[in-house]
């Protein structure tokens, strides 16, 4: 069964003024669509991999389970498809979210000291990722929360990741995610992101991660 | 003190319109390139490298594949560059590099390059990187300069 582009859970302009409607239109309809199309094309010759589902495909990136001649395409486009499917859901219209659950807040405090410190570290990971990539907050193997960043369309589910995390929150720092509105001012985009986090979804992701599961897409 | 200099492009910022807008140049040269230069100058201030030429700094900071922090500032999937290179015998090759890597660290002499970081084309072409590349190839290359570099690579 082919992969498909999921619908955005909100209108293109829902995240204004923090992410502009034109960016959402192009980011979803062009960039994410391209990852889906390219992934499907690569897996045409290996239909049994399509049936694995996008989470398992990502987990198998970097292993022999993915045939060598499509390994890079699957890493880039399988990563891109999972990353963006995850990303749309952890955002919502400004003032639409009531903040993190008590469990998530407690876990953030335990791992970082406070929400503010967690945000500082997340912001630093996002700003410090040179070139294209993502910043992540996720649950580590020992159950604590950690922050990491990955290059290009890699993610912490993949076998190639520096640090294995079950993602709870993530931020796209490819220039296509912010260039039309923020141009080179990536730190401004990162700061603006906190206004549109869907904490309810993030809290659900945390609950799943504590139980050892990746977030539902 | 011998700071690295941000040189102006050899033409006014609107010279490549409509293929590459003045706005792109204002950001790409005026912000991105300027930031690389400013950050590099801050990094080399007070060190040996302060008095070296840019190419020496690039090679030294490449550090045989474990680049030091200064390196990032001296077709690809994600950010990077495409290169047409010449060896000393005039034989051409094409290569691509990620982020700020460049062929000189692989002993190659580039004679033509295209920046494919999204900041190089997003204002004018958004996601349409192939259209940007096609326009670049058809309309924006300074072939006199490329030919000069080709000749120089063989000396």
Automatic annotation (TrEMBL), chain A:
GO cellular component terms given for this protein: cytoplasm
Pfam families registered for this protein in UniProt: Sod_Fe_C, Sod_Fe_N
Descriptive protein name: Superoxide dismutase
Name of the coding gene: sod1
GO molecular-function term, one example from the UniProt record: superoxide dismutase activity
Domain of life of the organism encoding this protein: Eukaryota
Similarity comment: family membership: Belongs to the iron/manganese superoxide dismutase family.
Annotated keywords: Metal-binding, Oxidoreductase
Keyword Metal-binding: yes
From TrEMBL, chain B:
UniProt function note: Destroys radicals which are normally produced within the cells and which are toxic to biological systems.
PANTHER family in the cross-refs: SUPEROXIDE DISMUTASE, SUPEROXIDE DISMUTASE [FE] 2, CHLOROPLASTIC
Matching SUPFAM superfamilies: Fe,Mn superoxide dismutase (SOD), C-terminal domain, Fe,Mn superoxide dismutase (SOD), N-terminal domain
Family note: Belongs to the iron/manganese superoxide dismutase family.
Residues binding Mn(2+), per UniProt: 28, 115, 119
Cellular-component GO terms for this entry: chloroplast nucleoid
Stored InterPro entries: Mn/Fe_SOD (IPR001189), Mn/Fe_SOD_BS (IPR019833), Mn/Fe_SOD_C (IPR019832), Mn/Fe_SOD_N (IPR019831), Mn/Fe_SOD_N_sf (IPR036324), SOD_C_sf (IPR036314)
Cofactor section: Fe cation
Pfam families in UniProt: Sod_Fe_C, Sod_Fe_N
Protein name: Superoxide dismutase
Reactions catalysed according to its record: 2 superoxide + 2 H(+) = H2O2 + O2
Gene3D superfamilies: Iron/manganese superoxide dismutase, C-terminal domain (3.55.40.20)
Domain Manganese/iron superoxide dismutase C-terminal: 73-149
Highest taxon above the source species: Eukaryota
Keywords on record: Metal-binding, Oxidoreductase
Naturally occurring in which organism (per UniProt): Haematococcus lacustris
Listed GO MF terms: metal ion binding; superoxide dismutase activity
EC number: 1.15.1.1
Domain Manganese/iron superoxide dismutase N-terminal: 5-62
